[in-house]
Amino acid sequence: MKKEDKGLLIESLEQTLNEYAHFYVVDVTALNSQATSDLRRECFKNDIKLKVVKNTLFIKALDKIGNADFDALKPAVKNNTGIMFCNTANKPARVIKEFGKNNHDMPALKAAFAEGMVYVGAENLSTLCALKSKNELIADVIAALESPIMNVISALENREEKAAE
Question: Which of 87, 136, 141, 146 has a Cα at 20 to 30 A from 164?
Fold first, then answer.
């Protein structure tokens, strides 16, 4: 591969990293072409961008961004690596978990950068599946605030009904 081509690929990866809030580093070594195609299809359905990358180019793209947190991800970038980019933190984890049930636990999670934190190792998959998106957290807060108000309204309505009797 020519040096210019490598530079373009690094620049493209850097742009993609800046475009998406979350990314997962996965091992795609054991996936055959049909399974890889199925994984790409599943990612597309879930608004996840999947790229199979050359490890050294991905590490150079991480270096260009200059986020010190990314240094913890670098040891996980080995063998055949796929990167799943998404703007919802838990979607790639859920796809990995569901897809792995029928594909001998492949793709395997190597590492992830989600909600501003670095997760290294497949043992973090359940934690990542349980992460709530910003919209889910806002909905939970609204529901928590709404519940006492609804209780007060219900109590007042019951009181009015009893007074009318």
Answer: 146
